[in-house]
Amino acid sequence: MGAKSFYTPTSMLIQVISIDELESMMSRLLDKKLAPSQNSTPTVERFPENKLYRRKEAAEKLNISPTLLEKWTKQGLIKSRKIGTRIYYVEKDINEAIKNAFNSSKS
Description:
Blueprint: H1 19-38, E1 52-54, H2 55-62, H3 66-75, E2 81-83, E3 86-90, H4 91-106
Antiparallel strand pairs: 1-3, 2-3
Helix pairs in contact: 2-3
């Protein structure tokens, strides 16, 4: 007696894989699907003035403490962007704050 096939066109194959294997498989699939669109999408490298800095990095670039950076942000001296729960600063806003601080020190 031959083996019966339990597969039909609408059957699902269930296989146990680890989370790492699933992440790897999803990453490869997304890379493959998104590759054609990456050539036409503007990137941060094309627009370096839009580079995002975390709070600590922005404070280091401004040579101030993260606490003072937070104070400046609340006072409106520098703009910040909130993405999810994180606060980011854009390169052009950091440069603008440096320029404004330099100009105010000259006065």
